[in-house]
């Protein structure tokens, strides 16, 4: 028998207070699977291998092999857009394909990039590096040192993970010699750890790290930052910044923009609260804002985005608005703020990006993109908060039900008048049935020649991704479900045209609902091939006797950021259940509209989305025929003690606090399992090397379900790949194929 209610049993290793729980904390339910928390233990990995073998025997049939190959073809396609980032005169790209599974870091010129077959200058072959060094390196990006004006970019710090996890080794690389700078000659080579690095000057780094004995926070991130000079060690480097142990992490960064050189530090208190500081005269000066106001700097400007309504000098600035002030004026005590954007019930600010002279705002209106260009040199006289204080011009580049994002090419370059790209911008557009398109444009002010005041923009297509499925045969619809409290919840439905509404269509419902992350339209060759184009076998498809393809649905539930901070905060902590109610409402709406039925409806989610579908499994088992639950949070009593879990208390609450455990326990799937319930077909998957959520919660959930005798529970754990579950295209194809094949077999053919 499995005990799922809190009782008096203590957890091994705890110092028990009254009732068996650590003094002052909520009691812990009995956990018969604590032994699985030893991630790399021999016995534990033997259990994992046994479960992997059982799942592979079930899923890896001939259809699976074809599906995996089809997905890998998409991921390895050489026709994909090679996205680039500009540094100096070069455009850099990281590329994986069949011949280079770990990838190539490379660069090209703009003229070459615009051709159909660019000539790439390969800087680093990660496969060759891994073979030479005997380490399965995963490339996580490059941070360049800004050279003197007119000099070429040459030195960079490369982030390399040994297993795809969040911990990186930073190594100095010379792009001209195409080699690492030898540590014996003073080259930087930081041990593998969680943290961040920033160049202060050519011979100095600002480093936040947990390596070399530097302290870490309870969330497993860096607690201190140091100033590291060439030829010295982290352990001996002078401390620059430090945060309390119970805060999330310390971050330092140097802004090297000429004329605006500044060093910043951020004390991340938790996921949504932070203190921002700037170094002045050898002392840290806090930027005086509430901790839930996001702050960013660009040249002479400070921008603020409050997460909750901010009352300042008698004026209330709504959550999700964007405000501006002069950097020096604000630090000197001035509190005159310009309102650049104010959200409404349908429109939210998702992100912003500065070119040298303009500000690009990426907005969502009912989860469809809108883009506005703001000109700080043209204040709007007498503008109220709804209009915005800087002249604003819409960017005509956003079709309905699409996701389009604009961001600067190189805001530190000269402007076009001087032969530079400082006011150039990228546009990336995508939709569920629209392959991604990359455009490049230029912004400039209208001249005083009778033209309408504002910003003129010119943009043209640079690259277009190929189509990987017959996308013209499918349509995208947006619907709204009504949640239990009356909230309208949008969702996207992608399906064949003229879909029969008889409840017999295999339907995959996806969601996230956390951390203010938005689920927006996006083209996926994998979903197209593995789900939309797949067909049921003959009469099994429905009452009309015809085979059916799959229906793909994305739910925009509360907890996400689709409608800004208020949409996110509506499902925080004790209100978490609203996210689950929203998702269940979408499921019911799909069933009531005749799109699908309980037997044909499956759900899929990863990470926080794994917690979401774990709650569908345990709270709404009557709505789903199958659940695919990836890299999930599931044990919400012990999540703060596992991997980086402590950092998410601001999202979910602290289970050690008795009053908070009372509501957390209501959405802890590991503790909601009950005997005598008909649960959906269940597939739980994770990765051994995931150092963010970790594999432990997935292991324990599967083990408990199996011990309870719940039929058709399957588990798979990839040995590498980190929180993404895959570190190369081959692993990614296998991961996606297992999940998609499981859902299809469960909903369209039956598992056997």
TrEMBL record:
Q: What EC number(s) does the entry state?
A: 3.4.21.26
**Keywords assigned:** Hydrolase
Full protein name: Prolyl oligopeptidase
Organism, by scientific name, is Arthrobacter nitrophenolicus
């Amino acid at each position: 028998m499995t005990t799922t209610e809190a009782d008096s049993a203590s957890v091994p290793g705890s110092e028990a207070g009254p009732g068996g729980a650590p003094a002052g904390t909520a009691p812990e339910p009995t956990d018969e699977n604590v032994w699985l928390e030893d991630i790399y233990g021999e016995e534990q990995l033997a259990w994992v291998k046994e479960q992997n073998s059982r799942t592979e025997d079930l899923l890896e049939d001939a259809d699976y092999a074809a599906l995996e190959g089809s997905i890998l073809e998409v991921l390895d396609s050489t026709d994909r857009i090679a996205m680039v980032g500009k540094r100096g005169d070069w455009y850099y790209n990281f590329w994986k394909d069949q011949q280079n599974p770990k990838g190539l870091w490379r660069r090209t010129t703009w003229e070459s990039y615009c051709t159909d077959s660019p000539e790439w200058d390969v800087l680093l072959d990660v496969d060759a590096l891994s073979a030479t060094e005997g380490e399965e390196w995963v490339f996580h990006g490059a941070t360049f040192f800004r050279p003197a004006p007119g000099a070429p970019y040459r030195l960079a710090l490369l982030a390399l993970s040994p297993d795809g996890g969040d911990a990186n080794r930073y190594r100095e690389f010379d792009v001209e010699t195409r080699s690492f700078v030898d540590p014996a000659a003073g080259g930087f080579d930081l041990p593998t750890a969680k943290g961040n690095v920033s160049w202060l000057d050519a011979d100095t780094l600002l480093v936040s790290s947990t390596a070399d004995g530097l302290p870490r926070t309870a969330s497993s991130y860096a607690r201190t930052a140091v100033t590291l000079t060439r030829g010295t060690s982290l352990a001996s480097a002078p401390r620059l910044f430090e945060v309390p142990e119970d805060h999330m992490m310390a971050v330092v960064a140097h802004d090297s923009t000429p004329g605006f050189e500044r060093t910043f530090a951020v004390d991340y208190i938790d996921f949504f609260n932070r203190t921002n500081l700037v170094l002045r005269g050898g002392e840290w000066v806090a930027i005086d804002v509430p901790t839930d106001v996001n702050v960013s700097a660009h040249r002479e400007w400070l921008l603020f985005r409050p997460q909750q309504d901010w009352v300042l000098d008698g004026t209330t600035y709504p959550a999700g608005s964007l405000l501006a002030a002069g950097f020096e004026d604000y630090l000197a005590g001035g509190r005159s703020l310009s309102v650049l954007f104010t959200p409404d019930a349908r429109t939210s600010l998702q992100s912003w990006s500065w070119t040298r002279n303009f500000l690009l705002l990426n907005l969502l209106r009912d989860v469809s993109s809108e883009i506005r260009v703001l000109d700080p040199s043209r204040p709007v006289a007498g503008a109220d908060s709804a209009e915005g204080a800087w002249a604003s011009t819409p960017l005509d580049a956003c079709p309905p039900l699409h996701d389009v994002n604009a961001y600067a090419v190189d805001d530190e370059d000269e402007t076009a008048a001087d032969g530079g790209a400082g006011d150039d911008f990228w546009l990336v557009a995508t939709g569920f049935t629209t392959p991604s398109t990359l455009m490049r444009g230029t912004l400039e002010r209208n001249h005083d020649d009778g033209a309408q005041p504002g910003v003129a923009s010119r943009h043209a297509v640079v690259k277009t991704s190929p189509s990987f499925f017959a996308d013209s045969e499918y349509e995208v619809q947006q619907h709204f479900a009504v949640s239990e409290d009356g909230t309208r919840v949008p969702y996207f439905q992608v399906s064949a045209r003229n879909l029969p509404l008889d409840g017999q269509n295999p339907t995959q419902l996806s969601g996230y609902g956390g951390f203010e992350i938005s689920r927006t339209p996006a083209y996926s060759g994998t979903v197209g091939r593995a789900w939309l184009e797949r067909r049921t076998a003959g009469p099994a498809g429905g009452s009309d006797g015809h085979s059916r393809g799959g229906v793909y649905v994305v739910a925009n539930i509360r907890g996400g950021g689709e409608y800004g901070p208020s949409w996110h905060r509506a499902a925080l902590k004790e209100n978490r259940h609203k996210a689950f109610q929203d998702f269940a409402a979408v499921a019911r709406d799909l069933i009531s509209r005749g799109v699908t039925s309980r037997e044909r409806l499956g759900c899929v989610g990863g990470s926080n989305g794994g917690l979401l579908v774990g709650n569908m499994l345990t709270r709404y088992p009557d709505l789903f025929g199958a659940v695919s639950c990836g890299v999930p949070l599931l044990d919400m009593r012990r999540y703060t003690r596992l991997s980086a879990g402590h950092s998410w208390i601001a999202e979910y609450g602290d289970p050690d606090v008795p009053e908070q455990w009372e509501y957390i326990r209501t959405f802890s799937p590991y503790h909601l399992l009950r005997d005598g319930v008909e649960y959906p077909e269940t597939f739980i998957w994770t990765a051994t090397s995931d150092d963010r959520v970790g594999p432990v919660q997935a292991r324990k959930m599967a083990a408990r379900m199996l011990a309870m005798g719940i039929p058709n529970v399957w588990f798979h754990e990839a040995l590498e790949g980190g929180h993404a579950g895959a570190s190369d295209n081959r692993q990614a194809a296998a991961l996606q194929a297992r999940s998609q094949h499981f859902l299809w077999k469960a909903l369209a053919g039956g598992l056997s």
